[in-house]
Amino acid sequence: MSSIRLLTASQNNRLFSAYLRLPRFYASQAKDAATEESSSATTAADSDLPVTFVEDEDLQAAREARIEQLRNKSRLLPQHRNMLHNQLPYEGSQSWIHETVKYKRTMLGRYGLEGSKVDPRICFPTKQEALEKTEYERVAFPKTLQQMMAENKKSKEEQVARIRAREEDVAKKMEKLDKWVSDLNARVAKKEAEARAAKDRKDRLVEEVRRHFGFRIDPRDERFQEMLAQKEKEDRKKVKEAKRKEKELKMMEKLKKRTADLEDDGSKGSPADAEDDEKK
User: Fold this and answer.
1) Which of 10, 32, 140, 271 is the most exposed, fewest CB within 10 Å of its CB?
2) What is the pLDDT of residue 199?
3) 72 and 66 Cβ atoms separated by less than 8 Å
């Protein structure tokens, strides 16, 4: 019985020893495999190194461009974004306008010597441009500054004089305004009186024609129209005669007054001479 137990113990010791040796075995095997794999990878990498390096650079550049695009949250165009950051909008010429002197001078003044990349000598005119500008100023502005100032002063003085004369004329006319208004009212009243008189005369003539016939007659009747025309003609003669008599009375009054004045002055002139003078 004791021999069986010893056998069992010896077997257990051998198994335990083998178990302890297993990790070392597997570790060495794994180490060898890793060494072989790394050596094979190093060999492959050494053989493909130029191609892999170029591809990595392209991928890195694309990645950087993608990151820069995602970083631009403003959605502005490149030229507008450059202007926002106080930089030159375009790196190179994009149009014929960018080659003009005016555009280059503008860029130089806005972004400076370093930012604009423009030769500052472009801001100064050439000899031909200076000659053309001098000729233009000679033709467009032939007078000197002193002459233009003198003419401007004279023009202002004349304008002030015209305004003053206009104001004086308006003031004089304002003084006569009341008289003009009264004269206008008198003329209007005279016209209205004449119109009323003409209407009354017309009504009177119509009534006389009706009394002439002795019965009511249509004013559109030919007999009525003929008689009315005859009455109007007679009335015009009467009015004309009345005006003539009135004019003669006025003339006589003037002659009497002139005669009295001549007598007072000791003049020997006759009333006939006075009448001839009045006619003249």
Assistant:
1) 140
2) 83
3) no
Helix residue ranges per DSSP H, 214-265: 222-265
More confident: 69 or 163: 163
Distance of CA 92 to the CA centre of its chain: 37
CB distance 88 to 107 below 8 Å: yes
Q: Quick one: CA dihedral 29, 35, 39, 45, positive or negative?
A: positive
Q: Are 55 and 48 in contact (CB under 8 A)?
A: no
Residue 17's pLDDT band (cuts 50, 70, 90): low
Tokens 């009504």 — which residue? Answer: 203
φ, ψ of residue 88 in degrees (nearest 5): -65, 130
Rounded Cα distance between 230 and 232, Å, is 5
**Do you know the residue count of the chain?**
280
In this predicted structure, the answer to whether residue 185 has a pLDDT above a threshold of 80 is yes
Sign of CA dihedral 163, 165, 170, 174: positive
> Helix 271-279 and helix 222-265: axis angle, to 10°?
120
d(CA 166, CA 168): 5
Concatenating the DSSP letter of every residue in 151-219 gives HHHHHHHHHHHHHHHHHHHHHHHHHTHHHHHHHHHHHHHHHHHHHHHHHHHHHHHHHHHHHHHTS---T
Dist. CA 108–CA 117, nearest whole Å? 8
Mean pLDDT score of the chain: 77
94: nearest Cα among 82, 85, 86:
82
Asked whether the predicted pLDDT for residue 45 surpasses 90, the reply is: no
* 135-140: Cβ within 8 A, 24+ apart: none
Residues 79, 98: contact at Cβ < 8 Å? no
Given CA atoms 204, 209, 214, 216 in this order, what sign does their dihedral have? negative
